[in-house]
Amino acid sequence: MKIATIARDVSHSPNMAANDAAILGCVADELRAKGLQVIEANEAELPDGCAAVCHMSRSPGLLKRLKEAERCGVTVINSPAAVENCSRLKMMQKMKEAGIKQPPYCLIDERTPLESLRYPAWLKRTDGWSIHSDDVCFVRNADEAKEAFDNMRSRGITRVVHCGHIAGDIVKFYGVGKNFFRHIYPDPEKSKFGLEKINGAPHRYPFSLDEMKRTVFSAAESIGLEIYGGDCIVCEDGAIYIIDMNDFPSFSAIRDEAAGEIAEYIINRITEER
Predict the structure, then answer these.
(1) Number of structural domains the chain divides into
(2) What pLDDT, on a 0 to 100 scale, did the predictor assign at position 129?
(3) Which terminus of the chain, N or C, has fewer Cβ atoms within 10 Å?
(4) Do the Cβ atoms of 67 and 194 come closer than 8 Å?
(5) CB-based contact 38:32 (threshold 8 Å)
(6) In the predicted structure, residue 128 carries a pLDDT above the cut 70
(7) Beta-bridge partners for 171
(8) What are the distances in angstroms from CA 268 to CA 4, 13, 115, 136, 160?
(9) Strand runs (DSSP E) across 79-218, as ranges?
(10) E strand or H helix at 241, and its extent?
(11) Is the model's pLDDT at 33 over the cut of 90?
């Protein structure tokens, strides 16, 4: 059986290109160890004759081709539709429809009176994924919001999500299907853009791990993700808010363990569909 892995283009992997490449390479090694033929490709390629494609792509052109492959019976993980659902506004809307607890948010544009909104808050680009350090900005008041929004507008971003700030511990999580789940407290010095520093050092507030797992699994299901990660806030009272979901993260903190789980998941998915 032949399986293709497709790496994420570096333009969609700011400060994380090496880690993204590493997890996919480990998954390929695990699949080979289980007796499968693996073709490691990039976003310019889509090998023929594969039973499955495990990819990290976010490029519209390749996602379109992967949709065609799905229609022809190829197992594609994550599905192109799920990846597209990870675009910021779509993701938040999907989770809202599913009743997932997340910070309060609203959509703003140049007509929105910024002084009427609550602060502190986060301004987040609505389309696509964060590829620039200013695609997600923490703002303490309307003046800072205006400056951040003006910066985004200068880069062609005309609509922005205004998202309430939630005080508490940032917790990163990783999942594969509904069987594998891990969580960690991130190191603020090793983050993509250093935004974890805003919430400060973790207090390690007590919370229900079962509730976190149920919430994350429900969030992933609402978006359609099979291999995923993200961030949540755990408040002093134990309340859990999802603040981000990512399609196929680098799993850098748990790479070896995750690679085996991902490979096993891919094999099971192929078996189920045949």
Answers:
(1) 3
(2) 65
(3) C
(4) no
(5) yes
(6) no
(7) 232
(8) 16, 28, 52, 37, 39
(9) 105-108, 121-125, 136-139, 160-164, 169-176, 180-184
(10) strand 240-247
(11) yes
Question: Which residue type occupies 57?
Answer: S
Q: Identify the band that residue 131 occupies on the pLDDT scale cut at 50, 70 and 90.
A: low
Say which residue, 135 or 69, is predicted with more confidence.
Answer: 69
| Nearest residue to 152 (alpha-carbon basis) of 120, 93, 112 | 112
DSSP state of 127: S
Q: Answer yes or no: is 174 within a domain.
A: yes
Same domain, 97 and 216: yes
Q: Tell whether 116 and 159 lie within a shared domain.
A: yes
For 239-266, the pLDDT digits (tens) are 999 999 999 999 999 999 999 999 999 9
In sequence order, the 6+-apart residues with CB closer than 8 A to the CB of 26 are 255, 256, 259
Residues sharing a CB contact under 8 Å with residue 67, sequence separation 6 or more, in sequence order? 80, 81
Long-range (24+ apart) CB contacts under 8 A made by 131-139 are 131/11, 131/12, 131/14, 132/14, 133/14, 133/193, 136/193, 136/195, 138/165, 138/195, 138/198
Phi first, then psi: what are they for 56, rounded to 5°?
Answer: -120, 15
C-alpha–C-alpha distance, residues 7 and 44, integer Å? 10
User: What is the torsion angle, in degrees rounded to the nearest 10, for the CA atoms of residue 242, residue 246, residue 251 and residue 257?
Assistant: 80
Instruction: Find the domain containing 118 and state its range.
Output: 105-164
- 143 and 11: one domain? no
Three-class DSSP category at 217 = helix
pLDDT in tens, 180-207: 999 999 876 665 556 777 888 899 999 9
CB 169, CB 185: distance < 8 Å: yes
Residue 152: Cβ within 10 Å count: 20
Average pLDDT over residues 4-8: 95
**Of the candidates 164, 183, 210, which is a domain's last residue?**
164
DSSP for 179-200, please give it: TEEEEE---GGGSSSSGGGGG-
